[in-house]
């Protein structure tokens, strides 16, 4: 069996889904033995996925122009896109900011926070700019598989990756399908 | 009526006409997803999740009556796809993201999502921001969570009879509103809380029970409310392994209240903040000192000669029986408890009458379940209502006739002309009693003051002011002590709440209260109802029932 290359990125999320990915523990070794090759991920600290990647996993919602570019690059380079966790699947907690304007959001985050003294809104060009609305990944690119959950259980991630490795289309049901 | 033949998923069956397709499918054990449908309420067919196919046409199972030659199919791709599409639309219309919702884990919309394997939203969501109405003391309305099923509207009108909730605008602009679109807290809401009980999502939630725990983490205890003599059926959710109540629901299967509860039963019974009497206290020249229960038994027994007992209607039958056993015929009631005109109608017969008369009781504020029954018939079924009172009565605004009690004779002329009148009354004097008794087309429902007034009546305990060397008082409402001839008497009071009047007592005993005690009582229709013990007392208090059985030397086991 050939290698199945996996890349993952982390957009507007809390890293909980990647923690859950690592929470597969020894089952990760099992998947690697079955041919899973972990390529560019926040875990390996490589930012750009290979051009011929098989599975692209996206954690987090699309909140800035940087996120938008990253998920589009993932779509170009990966055969299967997996939205991992509630933020990627539904938009999640980050969409709470859709109820406020960008100005209100930055003001609250950098200036009026109770613990902040002499706060300043960062203006560096290297920082991504907020989109008008935080979106689920499937509002920006086509997504093939969804694993909701906050975070999704290691069992759910394991099940999905195993099914894909064995050439089947996974369908989350029962205990594996949770929105919380 | 003759049975009719229909086909369900290819099998021919015979069903009785008059049933809905949903009822037939349910009887056959076929699962049909529903959201707006709620068994005790009139079906409405607005969510369209229960659609089934009949000869190629999609029909809502909950509102379609069975008719001959139907060919129902419940699992065709057409049915399944339609249900999935509806569910996707429901999820995307407002904010149905579970992570920031209080009811996640027991939400009917969430359950449907799981049932249909919904793992993402197909339509963009979060386009609109709806208001959150936090103006009400007990209930919060978050319109972002609303699926417009109108269960709350139907429960508020059909069952609770208040007709507070309604809707405005149409389509996706529809909003659930209170009265003429005022904040719920400023509306005519009586805080019965039924809307929060029937809401399938987190759109209407009970503030107190928020984040205290899910239904699966609770044990359910069925008991009757003892806050007033109606005795509504309660479904009490107690957190497993903890000593608190998460929430109280009305019990739909209760033959007293059939789902009804009022503000007092659902909320006030849990918000009790009155200061409690803790321990057993004996007065000496320095003030009060604490006593052990064994010493209390000795004092109690030594004072039984030349002793009388006063009780109030908060006592349960078991307690009254034992007090009678100890004090024989020297037991008196602190308050009058006779029914001027005995009750001759049951609560279950109160619906569908043509003419109701309410005397001296504002049923929006007291005896809420009786109020609900009257209101749902008066507003919902156009029955006539006459309100007779000596002061302001909020029922007057829906009444056909309003009289001052002084003009009872004028009212009587109207009542005599009716086929049948239902008179719901309290606090009437002898003259008014004989006036009302002259009616021969009337059924009476007396509203006693205290929970177990009828029990006191049944045990023959009368309101009298007797004198004795030793006076024992048992009860919650101590107002009546002020009028007792207590000069030079040794006074022992068993009560749950601190009160100014207690300074007159020589021995004060803190007793269990509310959900800490169990026992039976007679409700206003004379039914024996049971209050269960749900909580362990948080204070050093005495359980009256077990104390009295100790005094009597009965070896009753008390948990």
Automatic annotation (TrEMBL), chain A:
Keywords of this entry: Oxidoreductase, Ubiquinone
Residues annotated as domain NADH:ubiquinone oxidoreductase-like 20kDa subunit: 14-163
Residue ranges of coiled coil: none
Keyword Oxidoreductase part of the UniProt annotation: yes
Any GO molecular function: iron-sulfur cluster binding
Residues passing through the membrane, by range: none
Keyword Zinc: no
Lineage: superkingdom: Bacteria
Protein's name according to its UniProt entry: NADH ubiquinone oxidoreductase 20 kDa subunit
């Amino acid at each position: 069996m050939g290698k199945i290359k996996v890349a993952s990125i982390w957009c507007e999320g809390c890293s909980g889904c990647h923690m859950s990915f690592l929470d597969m523990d020894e089952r990760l070794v099992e998947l690697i033995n079955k041919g899973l090759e972990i390529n560019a991920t926040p875990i390996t600290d490589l930012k750009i996925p290979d051009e011929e990647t098989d599975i692209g996993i996206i954690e987090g919602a699309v909140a800035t122009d940087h996120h938008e570019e990253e998920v589009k690059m993932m779509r170009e380079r990966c055969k299967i896109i997996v939205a991992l966790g509630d933020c990627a699947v539904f938009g999640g907690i980050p969409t709470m900011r859709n109820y406020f304007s960008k100005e209100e959001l930055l003001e609250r985050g950098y200036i009026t926070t109770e613990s902040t003294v002499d706060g300043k809104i960062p203006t560096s060009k290297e920082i991504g700019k907020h989109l008008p609305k935080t979106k689920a990944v499937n509002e920006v690119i086509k997504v093939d598989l969804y694993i909701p959950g906050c975070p999704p259980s290691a069992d759910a991630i394991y099940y999905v990756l195993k099914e894909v490795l064995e050439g089947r289309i996974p369908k989350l049901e029962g205990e594996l399908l949770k929105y919380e | 009526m003759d049975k009719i033949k229909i086909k369900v998923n290819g099998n021919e069956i015979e069903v009785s006409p008059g049933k809905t397709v949903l009822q037939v499918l349910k009887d056959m054990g076929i699962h049909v997803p529903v959201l707006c449908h709620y068994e005790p309420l009139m079906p409405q067919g607005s969510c369209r999740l229960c659609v089934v196919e009949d000869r190629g046409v999609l029909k809502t199972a909950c509102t379609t009556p069975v008719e001959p030659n139907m060919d129902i199919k419940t699992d065709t791709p057409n049915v399944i796809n339609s249900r999935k599409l509806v569910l996707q639309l429901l999820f995307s219309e407002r904010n149905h993201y579970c992570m920031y919702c209080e009811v996640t884990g027991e939400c009917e919309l969430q359950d449907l999502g799981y049932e249909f394997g919904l793992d993402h939203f197909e339509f963009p969501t979060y386009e609109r921001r709806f208001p959150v109405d936090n103006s009400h003391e007990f209930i919060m309305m978050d319109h972002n969570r609303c699926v417009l099923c109108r269960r709350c509207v139907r429960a508020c009108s059909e069952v609770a009879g208040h007709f507070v909730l309604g809707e405005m605008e149409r389509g996706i602009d529809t909003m659930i509103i209170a009265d003429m679109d005022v904040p719920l807290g400023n509306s005519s809401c009586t805080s019965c809380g039924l809307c929060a009980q029937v809401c399938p999502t987190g759109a209407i939630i009970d503030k107190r029970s928020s984040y205290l725990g899910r239904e699966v983490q609770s044990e359910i205890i069925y008991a009757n409310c003892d806050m007033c003599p109606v005795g509504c059926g309660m479904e009490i959710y107690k957190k497993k392994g903890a000593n608190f109540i998460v929430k109280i629901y009305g019990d739909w299967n209760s033959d007293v209240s059939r789902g009804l509860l009022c503000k007092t039963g659902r909320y006030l019974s849990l918000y009790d903040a009155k200061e409690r009497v803790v321990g057993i206290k004996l007065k000496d020249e320095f003030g009060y000192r604490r006593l052990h229960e064994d010493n209390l038994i000795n004092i109690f027994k030594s004072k039984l000669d030349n002793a009388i007992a006063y009780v109030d209607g908060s006592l349960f039958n078991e307690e009254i029986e034992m007090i009678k056993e100890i004090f024989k015929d020297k037991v008196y009631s602190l308050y009058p408890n006779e029914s001027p005109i005995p009750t001759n109608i049951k609560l279950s017969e109160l619906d569908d009458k043509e003419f109701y008369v309410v005397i001296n009781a504002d049923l929006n504020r007291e005896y809420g379940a009786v109020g609900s029954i009257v209101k749902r018939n008066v507003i919902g079924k156009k029955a006539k209502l006459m309100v007779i009172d000596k002061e302001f009565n909020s029922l007057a605004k829906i009444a056909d006739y309003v009289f001052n009690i002084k003009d009872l004779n004028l009212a009587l002329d109207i009542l005599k002309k009716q086929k049948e009148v239902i008179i719901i009354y309290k606090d009437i004097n002898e003259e008014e009693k004989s006036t009302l008794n002259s009616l021969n087309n009337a059924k009476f429902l007396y509203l006693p003051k205290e929970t177990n007034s009828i029990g006191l009546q049944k045990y023959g305990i009368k309101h009298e002011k007797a004198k004795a060397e030793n006076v024992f008082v048992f009860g919650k409402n101590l107002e009546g002590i002020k009028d007792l001839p207590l000069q030079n008497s040794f006074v022992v009071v068993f009560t749950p709440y601190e009160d100014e009047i207690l300074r007159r007592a020589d021995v004060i005993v803190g007793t269990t209260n509310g959900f800490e005690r169990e026992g039976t009582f007679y409700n206003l229709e004379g039914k024996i109802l049971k209050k269960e013990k749900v909580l362990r007392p948080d204070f050093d208090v005495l359980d009256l029932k077990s104390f009295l059985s100790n005094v009597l030397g009965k070896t009753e086991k008390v948990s």
